[in-house]
Amino acid sequence: MRCLTVLFCLLLPLSVEAREAIRIVGSSTVFPFVAAAAEQFGRDEQFRTPIVEATGTGGGIKLFCDGIGESYPDMVNASRPIKKSEVERCASNGINEIVELKIGYDGIVLANAWQAPVFSLSRRILFMALAREVPKDGKLVQNPYKRWKEIDETLPDLPISLYGPPPTSGTRDAFVELVMGEACKEIKEYTTTYPDEETRKKQCTAIREDGAFIEAGEDDNIIVQKLDANRETLGIFGYSFLEQNVGKVKANPIDGVMPDFEHIVDGSYPVARSLFVYIKRAHAKLVPGIREFGVMLTADSTTGEDGYLAMKGLLPLPEDEHKQMKKTAAGLIPMGNN
C-alpha cells in the first residue's frame, strides 16, 4: 500500500515494506519544504512517498551518521552546514560519500505577537538579554537583567522572555553562532577572562538558565502559538514560519535590518543562513528513488525562483549556484568532488 501523505507515512513502522520508501530526518526548519517535495514525489506511481521526520538538525545528523543499511536514514535535512566532527563520525561508521545539496536560504527572526510593541534589537542587545555571563564594571557577572528596558532605554518595559529551540536544533546552532558569537567578539571582558579561544567560544554561546529563555522543542509552530497567546514574549524561529503566520506574529529588526527576501538573500540581514539536504550516496543502491528525489528537489519547478517551495517561504539560490546543485544531485557528487 502506498503512503498517500507524509503524515500517514510517519505513522508507519519501519518495516521491510516501509523501507521501500526513502527515510529523511533532521531540521524542523527544512521539514516543511522537504515534506512538500516528498508529497509531490509520491504522486508518481514509480516511487513511494518518502518518510520525513523532524528530529532537529543535530539529532538528525547523528542518526544519519550511525551507519549504512536499512536501519539508518538515507538523507538528513539541516539548517546549518554539517560539521567537520560530524563528517568524521560518519566516516568512522563507514559513510565516506556524502552528497551536499544546498536548497535555499532562510533567516532567523525574533518575532512577537502581531499587535505587540516593536523591539528595535541588535546582536549586542540580544547577547545582553540571553548570555549566561555579561560584562559589568569591567568584569563578567551572572546575567542580572530582568527587563528589556534595563539593557536599553529605548526598549519596552517588559520582562525578558524568549521562546526558542533546544540545543539539538540547527536554528539554535545558527542563532548562537550568528548572534551570540558575533556580539561576544566586541566584549573585551570575555577576551580577558577566557584567553583560550575554544573556551571563550563555548562561554560566549552559553545561554542563561534562569527562565528568561524557554526551550520550546523542535516544533516552531508551538512557538508561534505561544507568541499569539502572550504579547509580552518574543520567539526565535525561521523566516519561513513567519511567512506562514502573517497576521499572528511579526518580525523585529536586528541591527536596523528587517528580515525579508531581499535582505536575507543579499546577506545584509545579519542572521541569515543556508538550508541543506545531505544524501548518503551508498544508499542509492539500497532504496529506490534516492537519485530521482534529489533531482526533483533541485528542479526549477521545486526550488527554482518560481518553484512551488518559494510559495512556502523558501528563498531560492542564485541561478549559478542552483545550476550547480542540479548537477550535484544528478550525479550524486559527494562533498569535496565538485
Main attributes of the structure:
single chain, alpha/beta, nine-stranded mixed sheet, two-stranded antiparallel sheet, 15 helices, 11 strands, globular
Summarize this entry quickly.
The protein has 338 residues and is an alpha/beta fold. 36% of the residues lie in helices and 17% in strands. Strands 1, 2, 3, 4, 7, 8, 9, 10 and 11 form a nine-stranded mixed β-sheet that branches. A two-stranded antiparallel sheet has the order 5-6.
Summarize the helices and strands and which ones pair or pack:
Elements: H1 6-10, E1 23-26, H2 31-42, E2 51-52, H3 57-64, E3 75-78, H4 84-92, E4 98-113, H5 123-130, E5 133-136, E6 139-142, H6 148-151, E7 162-164, H7 170-184, H8 188-193, H9 197-204, E8 213-215, H10 220-229, E9 234-238, H11 239-244, E10 249-251, H12 261-265, E11 272-280, H13 290-297, H14 300-303, H15 319-331
Parallel strand pairs: 1-2, 1-3, 7-8, 7-9
Antiparallel strand pairs: 3-11, 4-9, 4-10, 4-11, 5-6
Helix pairs in contact: 5-7, 13-15
